[in-house]
Specification:
This protein is an alpha/beta fold. About 35% of the residues lie in helices and about 20% in strands. A hairpin with a 6-residue loop joins strand 18 and strand 19.
């Protein structure tokens, strides 16, 4: 195992797996913390997908430390802590506390924080994170239902989460090349810095940053940083690159879409699906809480649709509607209600012969994958930056596209199915 990664949510883990696979590494995604003594798959990279982004910081630290220890015990040369490209967190964590714990575990004196993913419009300049052309604090992420991001200065955001000293490596240094950046690392470490936010504007910057991190025991960032990290092992002859498939064989069965994200991108994708004539069923958290609506009802509706249709069951809402629901049920109460309902819907659909699912939203994906009993994923073709098709390893045999709420073009729900082939053996 060259890279052992700990991801703080399911879709983020899949995003990272796609990036590592694109760079030629055979990559396997493991759902949840491995059991004591469990042997991890033989692969160039193993990504352990946790559901730790929005839980209490102490719990996130314990889970992440245990996952990293499992990876190290089975030979991982480098640990990567993966979080969202929009740095989703609160003033309490969880990025800072987990980073500090993993630095202690790996004996790392200085590491980087690089959430940037230019292909998806996430870039960092002078320490400020941009989403497209807007500062993070001016983007729709300012209204994130669990982790509203209202400060785009990542040095400031991360420093509020940790007692470790947070600094900045600016774009001018990155443009001087990896040797200059390594020297900067040494200088900043001698000056007492522990974590450096790194400016990143292009994929070429990610390559430079990754090369400078060769041999660093712990690296933290979004999936984009894998671009440079993977290249180190290929360049050293430790990995023989393998091509990513253009299409993926998928098991026989019906198809469905489950959307729990309230991001602007997902709302646009739902609108595009409605315009394309896909059948839609809206879940309402308040109605679920009051018993006026049930997961069984939603699943029965999907089963009753035409066998060749792709029914979409969604709970996504505008920021105004979401605020109203959260005021009635609480921020986490509303989210938990929807996650559990969509997980139950997925389970019922699987029992009814559905075997192909698109799931939108990190928390929703975690709930759905758990309900379906999926424990490992192999990575298939890229649907959109950060989103591949995957196929479960073992039973149940399912095709899954686990999409971060913010990712994908408006027609994602309509076009993603084009990359699936009839049932065959996945090699």
């Amino acid at each position: 195992m060259r890279i052992g990664a700990v991801a703080d949510d399911i879709t983020g883990a899949t995003d990272l797996c796609l990036m590592l696979t694109r760079e030629g590494l055979r990559t396997v995604q493991v759902m949840g913390l491995p059991e004591s003594g469990q042997r991890l798959p033989e692969a160039d990279a193993v990504v352990i997908a946790l559901k730790s982004r929005s839980i209490a910081a102490e719990q996130a630290v314990d889970l992440s430390r245990a996952a990293a220890r499992a990876l190290l015990d089975q030979g991982a040369e480098q640990i990567l802590f993966k979080y969202c490209s929009t740095f989703d967190s609160t003033d309490e964590g969880n990025i800072g506390p987990v980073t500090a714990a993993l630095m202690e575990l790996t004996g790392t004196r200085l590491t980087i924080a690089c959430p940037s993913f230019p292909a998806a419009g996430r870039t960092t300049y002078k320490g400020h994170l941009f989403v497209g052309d807007a500062l993070l604090s001016d983007s729709p992420l300012k209204d994130h239902p669990l982790n509203p991001m209202r400060d785009s200065n990542l040095v400031r955001v991360l420093q509020r989460q940790t007692s470790m000293k947070v600094g900045l490596a600016q774009i001018g240094t990155i443009w001087q090349g990896s040797d200059a950046l390594r020297k900067e690392f040494a200088v900043r470490e001698a000056a007492g810095d522990n974590i450096l936010i790194v400016d990143t504007l292009t994929d070429a910057d990610l390559q430079t940053i990754g090369a400078a991190c060769e041999g660093m025991p712990l690296v933290t960032g979004g999936s984009g940083i894998a671009l440079g990290l993977a290249a180190n092992f290929v360049r050293a002859g430790k990995v023989s690159p393998r091509p990513i498939p253009a299409r993926m064989p998928a098991p026989k069965g019906r198809a469905a879409i489950l959307a729990g994200s309230c991001s602007a991108a997902t709302l646009g994708q739902i609108a595009a699906a409605r315009a394309a004539g896909l059948p839609l069923f809206g879940l309402d958290a308040v109605a679920l809480a009051e018993g006026r609506q049930t997961a069984a009802e939603a699943a029965e509706w999907a089963v009753a649709q035409s066998p060749d249709s792709r029914p979409l069951i969604y709970s996504s809402a505008t920021p105004e509607k979401l605020l109203e629901v959260q005021q009635r049920l609480g921020r986490h109460g509303a989210g938990t209600m929807i996650e559990q309902a969509l997980g139950e819907v997925a389970q019922r659909l699987k029992e009814a012969g559905f075997a192909r699912f698109i799931v939108a939203g990190g928390e929703t994906s975690g709930s759905v994958v758990a309900a379906l009993g999926v424990t490992m994923l192999e990575i298939g073709p890229e649907i959109a930056p950060g989103v591949p098709w995957t196929r479960s390893v073992g039973s149940p045999d399912l095709a899954l596209a686990l999409k971060s709420g913010n990712f994908g073009a408006p027609d994602f729900f309509v076009r993603a199915w084009d990359l699936l082939e009839p049932e065959a053996t996945l090699v």
